[in-house]
Amino acid sequence: MPASTAQQSLRSAFSLLVLLGLVACQAATTEVEEEALVEDETVAAQVFPDDFAQVCNEIGFAPAQAYESTPGEVHPIYVFERANETEAYSKSYRDLPEGWEKDWEASQETQLVACLTLTQETLSNTCEFPPEEGETDVYVLETYDTAYDVAIYHAKSGEQLDSTTFELQADDECPMFHMFTEGELADKSNPDYSQVLLEFVKPYVQPEA
Fold it and tell me: The whole model's pTM is what?
């Protein structure tokens, strides 16, 4: 084979190798970019329990699962509360029946949101706890009667499904024991609304046949 022909063949082979290398590199880059895009979309799509707070203002949360009352099924709910009408809602972490509340990883499966606003506090009792051995300070606990405005919403649309008012009475007697915050000599206590809340939302969360 003439030298010029051999050189041309060598150049062609080298060019082909370079071209194949560029194609492989471009394919690898495209694959990495696609994986990064999928990861970014996953992060952007992730929702958290606190994201549902806007529903308390009748603003629907699009990523939520649609609600359609179905007897025998559990329709997951998040509960939010606030201390007065001017504060923002924050998620309540009171215990709910098993299956009623989704973990944060599955927040988008939530269908309902319940919202409570504390509207009234009336002093019911002032309880004094004598100092423990070696102490001189008296601890004081104030217990209050309370009232709440309560509503339950369709999470996805923000539609209000029902509303009511809770009026809760503090115990007449002082508790035998109370855990005070370290360094604090006074505290306040409101009645637990958990049971009346469960009774109010159950027909929506777990409707009967």
Answer: 0.76
**Three-state secondary structure readout of the chain:** CCHHHHHHHHHHHHHHHHHHHHHHHHHHHHHHHHHHHHHHHHHHHCCCHHHHHHHHHCCCCCCCCCCCCCCCCCCCEEEEEECCCCCCCEECCCCCCCCCCCCHHHHHHCCEEEEEEEEEEEEEEEEEECCCCCCCCCEEEEEEEEEEEEEEEECCCCCEEEEEEEEECCCCCCCCCCCCCCCCCEEEECCCCHHHHHHHHHHHHCCCC
The residues spanned by each domain of the chain are: 49-204
| pLDDT tens readout for residues 167-186 | 999 999 999 989 989 889 99
Least confident residue range of 40-54, 79-93, 102-116, 150-164: 40-54
